[in-house]
Amino acid sequence: MRLYARVRLGSSLALAAATLPLVTLAAGESAGQRAGVAVDTVWVVVAAVLVLFMQAGFAMLEVGFTRMKNVGTVVAKIVVNLSIASIVYWAVGFAVAFGAASGFLGHLIGGSGFAPSFLPGSTMNLPALHGSDAPAAAKFFFEFVFCAVSLAIVWGTMLERTKFIVYILFAVPFCAVIYPLISHWLFGGGWLETSFGAQDFAGSTVVHLTGATAGFAGLLLLGPRIGKFGRDRKPNAIPGHSMPLAQLGVLILWFGWFGFNPGSTLQAMNLHFADIVVVTNIAAAAGALGAMATNYLTQKSLDVGMIGNGAIAALVAITAPSGYVQPWAAVIIGAVAGVIVVYGVLLIDRILDDPVGALSAHGLAGIWGTLSCGLFTDPALAKFNGVGHGGLFYTGSFAQLGAQAVAVSCCFATVFCLSFGIFWVIRRTVGLRVSERHEIDGLDISEHGMWGYPETFMPVPGGAYIHPDAVAGAARRIAVVGVESVR
Hints:
487 residues, mainly alpha
């Protein structure tokens, strides 16, 4: 009897589970609508995961462009900053960027949705994101990974001499205020988007220029690495220890960008993401080739790092216009970005110490990409996206180009002032850079008590290690024996 009762109970529960979706459908959405929501949700989450994987690309890129004594601190920085961004953006940043707010204040900053809670399929009052049927949790996660990418860009200019505590202290206000503020202005229905019609589809300015500008502010206060400039102020090359790792980082970033740009549709049902995939890839290819050609013409070499930076710069540049331009324009935008990054790196290197070329690849290329919307935006795609107008080459009007210039100028000035102020306070309190002794020893051992490549610097059980002093001593003994034999 007990077995029979259990069978009946199990059958009843199974029937209830099977009929529950039918009751829900009858009360609300159709099966097609529910399928559309599911498709959009899967696409947004998958795209966000691709963008999250870009953190590995930044790690490899920076590790490759730094010296062996500083590789461990790079990886630790990436993990810690990603962790800080995860919590701070959830608690504060998402609300500032996309939360609903009324009146004049709503054009400047979001004001609702702090530390949100989520239930399956739950929604939030996010006016700028109403075009997507994905639930609030998916939208939050996608926007969070953008914030994490922008924060990662900041530190490319400040590698190999920055105190680890600086990464922590700056990450909090950056993720809570600086990045969300710019995000609101151009992504979240703020004044640059609604009043000027400024276009930035996936973040050439919001993500990349913001990160590069904050890094520029920090760099001015931090100063160059020891040995970067001679007494005559001429720059010395400080090569990174592994070009293969750096270029692996480039390829990972290239791969992740297919979540970055196409994912910014925040939906799959309108199929526009497929167009953006093509545009993004074509621009990256043009950038790599453009940088290679420019570097050969100017330096008579095929610099591996420059080729990779050309691809990155082109990806940065195409980020803003990716949802607005046709493939032919993507070729031009990418190729010009490749040229810009080569000249930018060569010129900036004369006066500033930017180890990975972030100011050129993310800053200058970000400016160019944002301005390129004013030249190449297809009026049909501007109408499709509901932001701004066609570019100069379609309409003959400078109106959209002017809107883009206003957006770049205002965002740069705001981010620079806020970041410079925060870095100045940090320098006056805990300090920005490590001591000269610690910088020479390397940040791996001085900041973390271990090396990224231990067998290079210390004996390891089971390994072969010869201390440099022993090598020098042996060389001296050989020299003495040689002299005595001649006598």
